[in-house]
Amino acid sequence: MRIAPVCAALAASLPLAVAQAAAAPGTPAAATQADAAYDGLAHDIFKQLIEIDTSDSTGNVTTAAAALEQRFLEAGFPAADVQLLGPNERKKNLVVRLQGSGAKRPVLLIGHLDVVEARREDWTSDPYKLLEKDGFYYGRGTIDMKDGDAVMATALIRLKKEGYHGSRDLIAAFTADEEGGCCNGVTWLLKNHRGLIDAEFVLNQDDWSVMAVHGVPRVARLIATEKLYADYQLSVTNKGGHSSVPRPDNAIYELAHALTRLGHFQFPFELNAVNRAYFEQMADGVAQGQEAADMRAILKDPPDAQAVARLSRDPDNVSVTRTTCVATRLAGGHANNALPQRADAIVNCRIFPGHSKEDIRQLLVKVINDPQITVRYVADDGTVSDRGTDEQAVPPAPLRPDVMHALTTLSAAAWPRAKVIPFLDPGASDAKYTNAAGLPTYTFGGVAVDRDEVRAHGRDERVAVAEFVKWNRFFYRYVTELTQP
Predict the structure, then answer these.
(1) H or E segment and range at residue 256
(2) 456 with 144: CB under 8 angstroms?
(3) Which pick of 180, 351, 371, 424 has the fewest CB atoms within 10 Å?
(4) DSSP state of 418
(5) Is residue 275 classed exposed, middle or buried when 0-12, 13-18 and 19+ CB atoms within 10 A define those classes?
(6) How many CB atoms lie under 10 A from the CB of residue 392?
């Protein structure tokens, strides 16, 4: 089997403290043979989840949650500790509890089962069939985030079968509608069943945290804070007319001009405690040459403008230092032979901490600078309003020493050349709900991806086979380290 050398190498590199835990009764074994068996289980669960369509338009999250429910029951979890529940028949969530001693409060593990839409005609292969090719697994959700779901489920099943009894309960919530839809699972559980998922802190797997350069892992990003997600609708209407008599106020032309202005606009450069620390540590041994010098220069007061400009040529740097807004959907016109009477665009924004959704709506109005175009806020459930909310990004959770120690120690074994650095996530995840609810949340997804090869939400999404295996072993040891008696 192709993964055996990878398995052996990783097992050999485990920290001594974790390896020694195998000698104690009731603690997880570090043996390569056991690892390999559970690598197979993780693959089977991964394949099963990928091949269940959980997109919002055509899929069913409940089907995937029920498949996992059956696996946990067959592994010996009591029915009372495996609960399938949700607001409707398509959007049920699964909450599983592995009982510990209760000496400490529980740890909550969260992962979403839903995926972004994928059209077969856009893909090289069927997005809802797991394909292994050239050292990669292909399929919708392979990296966002059914890999994390499979690893999370495998870790709990393995611990159960090994008779592990940690200092804390481990709770896993497999949820709906992180990628959009009516019924976000984490929000629903917090509102309706807080007691089921209440915990001292939360581990979220919704990321591909180990960034590589030319195949060499360089940074292991622990997400300490996130940007705020918001959608806006840009609309223009006019009287239309016959297409044989073109008019300059064509609704589609008006909208195109507005989107061009937005595309040329750059939001202000900003630093906070998290991205400032990120650039400080990147400049100290990760970045090289001019890039490292520029990272130091932007930390000056005031930031060096030329350094900011050079770093801003890289979209990755832009995404962590500014609010960003981009048009993601267009609609317009009503007939091929008529001037359009209406045109609409959805603009998706990722808002830098410190600004509200209404702040950004008002700024979009100023940037577009066209009274014919209305800018309205689109809520998560699709409701369109004339005003955005006052919601802002949640302040970062304090970095727990136990989480940092476990992550740093295990990362050094798995990716020796990667530096663990707190990170401001340019995206958004369900961590915003748990953090807002007073559950400190730490996001880390243990697969290495080359910075130019991230295909989440895109065509031919994939994850490296070796990285999936490594993540499966890493996560098992990660939660064990954090719940040791």
Answers:
(1) helix 251-264
(2) yes
(3) 371
(4) P
(5) buried
(6) 15
Using CA atoms, how far residue 203 sits from 125, 287, 403, in Å, is: 32, 28, 9
Q: Report the helix count and the strand count for the chain, using DSSP H and E.
A: 16, 20
Give the three-class secondary structure for 270: coil
Cβ neighbours for 150, distance < 8 A, ≥ 6 positions apart: 42, 43, 45, 46, 49, 472
Pull the structure tokens for residue 35.
């690892």
**Sheet with 373-378, edge to edge strand ranges:** 324-332, 342-351, 228-237, 373-378, 384-385
Q: Considering the domain delimited by 227-385, tell me its CATH architecture.
A: 2-Layer Sandwich (3.30)
Residue 290 amino acid letter: Q
Q: Is the peptide bond before 145 cis (omega within 30 degrees of 0)?
A: yes
As beta bridge partners, residue 361 has none
pLDDT tens readout for residues 403-445: 999 999 999 999 998 999 989 989 889 999 999 999 999 999 9
- Spell out the domain ranges in the chain: 4-225+396-482, 227-385
For residues 108-128, b (16+ Cβ closer than 10 Å) or e, as one string?
bbbbbbbbbbbeeeebeeebb
Name the fold adopted by 4-225+396-482: Aminopeptidase (3.40.630)
* Angstrom distance (rounded) from CA 30 to CA 17: 11
Query: Averaging pLDDT over each range in 25-39, 98-112, 437-451, which range is the top one?
Result: 98-112
Report the sign of the C-alpha dihedral through residues 305, 307, 309, 311, in that order.
negative
How much is the pLDDT for 29? 40
Nearest CA to 127 out of 467, 459, 464, 465 is that of 459
Distance, in Å, from the CA atom of 185 to the CA atom of 226, rounded to the nearest integer, reads 19
Produce one character per residue of 172-211: b if its CB has 16 or more CB atoms within 10 Å, e if not. bbbbbbbbbbebbbbbbbbeebeebbebebbbbbbbbbbb
CA 126 vs. chain centroid, Å, equals 23
Q: Which residue has the higher pLDDT, 40 or 19?
A: 40
Q: Any idea which residue has 């008779």 for tokens?
A: 163
Mean pLDDT of all residues belonging to the chain:
91
Which tokens is 266 given? 């750059």
Residues 6+ apart with CB under 8 A from 257: 370
What are the tokens at 209? 């945290």
For residue 439, give both structure tokens. Answer: 């559950």
Task: For residue 333, give the nearest of 344, 322, 325 by alpha carbon.
Answer: 344
Residues 6+ apart with CB under 8 A from 182: 87, 91, 381, 382
- State pLDDT tens for residues 153-167: 999 999 999 999 999
Measured from the Cβ of residue 348, the count of other Cβ atoms closer than 10 Å reads: 15
